[in-house]
Amino acid sequence: MKKLLFYEYITYACVVFLILLIVVWNVFLYPPENLPRVIPGILYNVPLLIIMVKLNKNNFSTYIITSYVMLFYFVIGVGNTTTQNSFYFGIIIAVISLIAFTSSIFYVREKDKKSIED
After folding, report:
1. What is the spatial distance between Cα 31 and Cα 50, in angstroms, rounded to a whole number?
2. What are the residue ranges of helices labelled H in the chain?
């Protein structure tokens, strides 16, 4: 049971950190020049906010969906490493999304293992 709780907290903390990182980067540090500041923050964070609300309910399927969404954010992070001014931002997003992906997959595996044993 402690493993499940650990993976649950790691996944939730990574999602919250991604939300905060994306908002700070797109709104305060490097806002886009041709769009209002809030638009990229909203567009990037809507899937994370939906997942964050559903993670509170602690459903099994939410962690599966979270793993797929984290792969999407990994691609965003790798894409951001191609430009010089967002290289570190891309690395941080890629690493945090991989941590969230791994912890959500481990959560699913442990939860599935528990249901098979019962």
Report:
1. 23
2. 2-23, 38-56, 60-80, 87-117
Residues in Cβ contact with 33 at an 8 Å cutoff, skipping those fewer than 6 apart: none
Going by C-alpha positions, the residue among 32, 108, 31, 35 that lies closest to residue 68 is 108
Q: Say what the pTM is.
A: 0.91
Q: Which domain holds residue 63?
A: 2-117
Q: How many domains does the chain have?
A: 1
In order along its 118 residues, the chain shows pLDDT tens digits of 688 899 999 999 999 999 999 999 988 888 888 989 889 889 999 999 999 999 988 888 999 999 999 999 999 999 999 999 899 999 999 999 999 999 999 999 998 887 777 6
How many angstroms from the chain centroid is the CA of residue 19?
A: 8
* Those residues with Cβ within 8 angstroms of residue 73's Cβ, 6 or more apart along the chain or in another chain: 18, 48, 93, 97
CA separation for the pair 62, 68 (Å, rounded): 10
